[in-house]
Amino acid sequence: MARILIVEDEHPINELIYRNLLLVGHDCLQVYDGMAAIEETKKQSFDLIILDVLLPSLSGFEVLERIRSIPVIFLTAKDGLSDRVKGLNLGADDYIVKPFETLELLARVEAVLRRTQKHTKLFQLVDAEINLESRKAYYQGLPVDLAPREFELLETLILNRNVALSREKLLELAWGYDYIGDMRTVDVHIQKLRKKLGWETCIHTVYKLGYRLEV
Fold first, then answer.
1. What residue ranges define each of the domains in the chain, with the CATH number in brackets?
2. Fewer CB atoms < 10 Å away: N or C end of the chain?
3. CA separation (Å) from 191 to 41, 151, 194, 196, 207?
C-alpha cells in the first residue's frame, strides 16, 4: 500500500490516524510539527501527507508551499470557507474538517491515492485475487462471476480490511446513502462472497454488529 506521513500535533488524533491507516495496510510515519514534516520529506519519499493546519514551527499552509510534489490531505479544525479555499488553491488534494469519522478519512485517503495512482490495484488473499481497477476477481486462477453489487461490497471490505463494519455502514458504503431495503441483503451477499472466493474463514462475523475482512 502507500507510504503516508501524518503531521498532527495532537498526539491522540495522530495516534488514531496512525493505527487506522496501519490496519488497512499502509506504512506510516508520525511527526508533530511543521519543520519535522519538511525534514522527513527531504530524507524519504511519501505517497501522501495528512497535514494539520495549526502546527508548531510552521503552519500546514507553509508546509504545503514547500512540498508541492506530494499529494496532501488537510485535516484541521479550521472550517471557514476562506481556509478551505486557501488550502485547495495551494494545491491540497482534499480538506477534511475535525471532528471526522475514521471511515470517511480512510475513504478520502483511498480516493486521493487512486487519483494519484499510488493505491494497490491488486489484492490477494488465500487463493483469491481481486483487481480493483479492472473490477475482476479470480479464485484459484479461474475467473469469478460477481454481480456489480457483490463487487461493490467486496471492494468496501478490501479498502476497510481489518476494520469492523456494521451492516448499516456496509449498506451505506456499497449500496449508497439512498438505499432502502432489508439489512439481510448484506448477509446474503456476504455468504455469496465467502463461497465464491473461498473466504469462509477470512470474512469474520462481528457479533451484533456486522463483518470484518481479516487480513
1. 3-115 (3.40.50.2300), 122-213 (1.10.10.10)
2. C
3. 45, 13, 5, 9, 16
Query: Tell me, what's the pLDDT at 86?
Result: 77
Q: Exposed, middle or buried, 46 (CB in 10 Å: 0-12/13-18/19+)?
A: buried
Grid cell digits, residue 163: 476494520
Say if residues 27 and 46 touch (Cβ distance below 8 Å).
no
Q: H-helix or E-strand containing 76?
A: strand 72-76
Contact 176, 152 (CB under 8 A): no
| Mean pLDDT of each 10-residue bin along the chain, 215 residues long | 92 94 91 94 92 90 87 83 75 87 88 76 89 90 92 91 88 72 82 95 91 91
Q: How many whole angstroms separate alpha carbon 75 and alpha carbon 72? A: 9
- Contacts of residue 195, defined as CB under 8 A and 6 or more positions apart, other chains included, come to none
pLDDT of amino acid 118 = 62
Q: With beta carbons less than 8 A apart as the criterion, state whether 111 and 88 touch.
A: no
Give the pLDDT of residue 50: 95
Q: What amino acid is encoded at 97 in this protein?
A: V
pTM: 0.72
Q: Contact at 8 Å (CB) between 150 and 192?
A: yes
Report yes or no: 116 and 92 within 8 Å, Cβ to Cβ.
no
